[in-house]
Design brief:
single chain, 193 residues, 9 helices
Length: 193
Amino acid sequence: SCAFLSLYSTQPLLPLFHKVFNASKLAVSLTVSASTLAVALAAPFVGIMSDLLGRKKVIVPAMYLLAISNLLIATSPGLTMIIFWRFMQGLLTPAVFAVAIAYINEEWQARETGFVTSVYVTGTVLGGFSGRLMSGFISGHWNWPWVFITLGLLNLALAAAASSWLPPAKSFKKVEDYGAGLQNMLGHFRNKP
């Protein structure tokens, strides 16, 4: 999945960033932590945004923006800008993975949602694994910016594929305003387990 392709991609690069930027282990770990923190901050709100705009209208632009952010990381002059762009990636990531589940439940028939969701979850696992694997392999053979150029180009291809292949929304019901979306989100806390 495009969402998780980049999320943990800097894990294999931490020793390299420590050496290249002469930075502390804490500083280089922020290339992972900033993303995951941003995911936690953004996740509750992307659902509201997708309730207002539509699922595909949130997923596809977020995928393109993830691609662009990877390409911008490749141009970063130092660790601070890498951390900034990684934070931006974290803000965009839930717009793909969290909204996709709602999209699946709305646009596929009930008998198909279990299978489609399992395919999607498998894709997210493969995406997270592939991002780390590619990152380690590419950085071992070329300079670290090539990791993000490769991920950015791959994200662009996946975004173009999603734009073409995702079926148009037929069952989406737009909420009237942000307040209604917030009420919908808070309503989940009243659901009984």
